[in-house]
Amino acid sequence: MSILSPCSSQPSAHAEDGVSARLAGPLQPLASLAYNLWWSWQPGGSELFAAVDEQRWNASGYNPVKLLRDVPASRLAAVSRDVEFVARSQALAGALVEELRKPWAEDTGPTPQKPVAFLCAEFGLHASLPIYSGGLGVLAGDVLKEASDRGLPMVGLGLFYRRGFFHQRLDRSGWQNESWIESNPEELPMRLEVDAQGNPRLVHITLRGHAVHAQVWHVQVGRVPLFLLDTNVVQNAPVDRWITSTLYIGDRAFRVMQYAVLAIGGLRALRMLGITPSTVHLNEGHAALASLELAREAVAAGADFERAIAAVRERVVFTTHTPVPAGNEHYEAQELLDLLGHLPAELGIDAQRLLALGRPHPTDASQPFGVSELALRTSRRANAVSARHEEVARQMWQSLWPGVAFENLPITHVTNGVHLPTWMAPEFRELLRRHLPAGWMEGDARAWAAVDGIPDAEIWAARRALRARLVDYVRTKSIADRLARGEPISYVEGAARTFEPSVLTLGFARRVAAYKRLQLLVRDPDRALALLRGPRRLQLVIAGKAHPSDEGAKRLVQRIFGLKGGEGASSHVVFLEDYDLAVAHELVSGCDVWLNLPRSPLEASGTSGMKVALNGGLNLSVLDGWWCEGYEPQTGWALPAHPDLGEEAQDAQDADALYGLLEREVVPCFYGQSEGEVPCAWVTRIRASLRKVGTTFTTRRMLGEYIERVYRA
Helix, strand, or coil here: 623? Predict the structure, then answer.
């Protein structure tokens, strides 16, 4: 039986025992729902679990497994007698059964017997499964959801980080402190792959000259399984048990061991499970060692190394997600050989031939080994994640193909998109459902043209409702954050008056890194404070984490945090701590304008602005990444890119342009009507933005392009 068949897509009984045993007959459908993340992007899914016990639902981190394990039996008994609730749960569970019975799409290239294997270091599927840090993981999660929706045979491969990414807490000075909370797998929506005797099934990888063992966890994402490798098993030495402990762990040796477990162990896990992928998709260079594992397998079957690598290229595709050096890691020769010194012999080559696959210039023995270079040299298709990024990637790696003209370099692009059912708030989804004909969720441009017929007042009412919800969220979270920092009572209580539901609301939320240029917001404090305090003022919500080892980014967070101390600004600017998927959902749905200020050309794509646009928000961004394709005069505002300027000149020019756009265009457009009236010019921009993003920047279009131009090519 294929692991992609509906019958094998459900968690095994032992994974559900603790939950099922607590549920009375009418509530049994909740168990199957809790163990399949499909519920998380269905209308009414979150509301169903919240209705069990809203306080515990919130405290669980929106985790249905933990909720159903922890809720008192008396409450479950009461819910089981609620006829309306039981009907809702049975209807949603029945819809899941029907979803799992659907046939897989035909003529996509991959088949249930030979699916796409999608390898990524992180997956941002839902806040309840904290194995992600940012945009790469969220994009990977959206890919699996879209594959399930459209019936593309796919399996995901990743790592189970028990500590995940760090939690952020600011002290009263604004300095970031980090902490880690270890996840209990018994409380997560996943099961362990076991053998006939109920013992964990283990894969074995040779690292540093000895065997390392990994067990395999199974997360079901609609119809698509995600397998997560975990080295925290008793068979391993203490150091090896730590390999998969922490996402993007700081120690380089541990990090490259993680990449080996992901890539080599991941493919071995598929073999153990009886899965033979038609295509191995390396989503960023972290998984590049998978090419060497495929080559090793071919050599073991009798091929010589050159034929083995040629065969690998027929099966591997590679997506590069960033031009930033930290995302294209390099390792010294000895670092790699200390880890995988046995591999050259297994490939039938010497160490220098192996290292040449990853060197920017293969014959230069002084150069380090790059994971992105390895992926590029061993894949049949390579793609960037926007049209602009394609140009940048070709410039970066042109030397890998000496003598090939720039326009003929084998790097193309598939611009990123976002999963509409996940990221569109219920208010906007219901608005469009009422007014748009069938096909709008699939990106049909004719269906989206009907946006022009939605009355201004209805669009504006939806936006007001989402902004008001964000204001409530900001107030509640600000009180909690301030209490945790030990702020004075007067300042804590002032959070209840933070933000106003009628004020233009700007958002800036992303990983804090130098090239994201959060500092532009405070480059001219006087102009910034004037915008915050003016008669037609704005309010600003900021969120983001600095990497624990990035002291400069931490100082930047502290500087931005200090903006609240400006006279009259404390109630109009907030920094929300511990940015994660739950916070992101609130921000992208509630903000009126999304700021994105990358240093061009370092923003490969970006996706948060697409999510904002799906909820009627507008973008103000540097013309880089996806915004080069998304910007039109009516869809938002653009800052010209100045990649040829020095950093200081670029920052000065862009900061001045940012403040100027806010002062002269954004604020007047938002407040352009008399008080209480609908700002028609603003709503016109919302319509243009919705049409553009709804037809172009979703995973529906994106995965369709991967099928046509990458998987079937």
Answer: coil
Residue 568 clears pLDDT 80, i.e. is over it = no
Nearest to 134 by CA among 625, 692, 601, 579: 579
Average pLDDT value over all residues in the chain = 92
Tokens representing 226? Answer: 């995600």
Q: Tokens for 499?
A: 């933000």
Q: Are 495 and 501 in contact (CB under 8 A)?
A: no
Distance of CA 29 to the CA centre of its chain: 29
Give me 535's structure tokens: 């008669």
- How many Cβ atoms from other residues are within 10 Å of residue 582's Cβ? 16
Cα–Cα distance measured from residue 222 to residue 228, given in angstroms and rounded to the nearest whole number: 16
State how far the Cα of 400 lies from the Cα of 389, in Å rounded to an integer. Answer: 17
CA–CA gap between residue 206 and residue 566 (Å, rounded): 57
pTM above 0.90? Answer: yes
Residues in the chain: 713
Which superfamily does CATH assign the domain made up of 116-167+179-416+705-711 to?
Answer: Glycogen Phosphorylase B; (3.40.50.2000)
Residue pair 533/526 in contact by the 8 Å Cβ criterion = no
- Contact criterion met (CB below 8 Å) for 241 and 254: no
Q: What six digits make up the tokens of 610?
A: 């697409």
Contact, 387 vs 629, CB < 8 A?
A: yes
Q: How many C-beta neighbours within 10 Å does residue 486 have? A: 9
Which is the CATH superfamily of the domain at 420-696? Glycogen Phosphorylase B; (3.40.50.2000)
* pLDDT of amino acid 4: 63
Burial label for 578, CB within 10 Å (0-12, 13-18, 19+), is: middle
Please tell me the distance from the alpha carbon of residue 240 to that of residue 235, in angstroms, as a whole number. Answer: 9
Q: How do residues 585-598 score in pLDDT, each as one tens digit? A: 999 999 999 999 99
Show the DSSP H helices in 21-177 as ranges.
Answer: 29-34, 45-50, 54-59, 64-70, 73-80, 83-101, 135-150
CA terminus-to-terminus distance, the chain: 28
Distance of alpha carbon 471 from alpha carbon 460, whole angstroms: 16
pLDDT tens readout for residues 516-562: 888 888 888 888 888 888 788 899 999 999 888 888 889 888 888 87
CA gap 610, 626 in Å, rounded: 9
Joined together, the tokens standing for residue 80 give 């089981």
Distance CA 112, CA 251 (A): 38
Burial class (CB in 10 A: 0-12, 13-18, 19+), 515: middle
Determine the pLDDT at residue 495. 80
Indicate the domain borders of the chain. Answer: 6-101, 116-167+179-416+705-711, 420-696
